[in-house]
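Can anyone check this?
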Amino acid sequence: MTQGDSTASGQWHLEALLGEPMYDLDDRVAIVTGAAGNLGGAVARAFWAAEARLVLVDRGTDRLPQLFPDLVDSPRAFLATSVNLADTTAVDAMVSATLERFGQIDVLVNAVGGWRGGTAVHETPLDTWDLLMDLNVRTMIVVSSAVIPVMLKQGSGKIVNVAARAGLSGSSKGGAYSAAKSAVIRLTESMSAELKNSGISVNCVLPATIDTPQNRADMPKSDVGRWVKPQAIADVILFLASDAAQAIQGAAIPVYGRG
């Protein structure tokens, strides 16, 4: 499992991304981590339709150009590949390159994450704990810590983290993932309390099971009609990044579908 562990299928061409935007972000620069994943890719699609300038970040070297071929040479997009989001030096370089290209950072969507379960807490290997904490928590902290000083200097910004419904309570054989996503929720609340008087909004979304090809393959007997689609989550994230959500601070927004 890697950062942005679920890779979106197919390619999104420029004409397919265009449409009537739900919100207008044409003066905003948005960083989306895990942009090669199903959810990160859906967020990228929604933000592109809203006219944002995009910084799409992935640890892989070739997934972003393959998924977004029409954005490779776009003046509105920066495909930041080979970025290890757990590494402060790599993230600082990505942020510096973003500022050199666009001069500002208005939105950060921390969409990187990963799941692993199936073992009791006392049987869960330490490397699984390390993996889930790194994917879900460390990446968020490292990227946010690099971006927040820019937003403080600007006096404005929006940060949207991706937690999960599993972060609200523990469950049998899912303790490590629940603990990691619970940390995302608590850190969202703390960051909001620290930054709200500086013009920076921090919120998170709580998806239930996401309808992805990977989840369908892993859970073939499930009622996928009850799962939430990545685009539905992306729409909520887009709302939280827009001026329409200016009164929302420190919230954990459920996005469950019919699950």
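Reply from J.R.: I decoded it. The radius of gyration is 17 Å.
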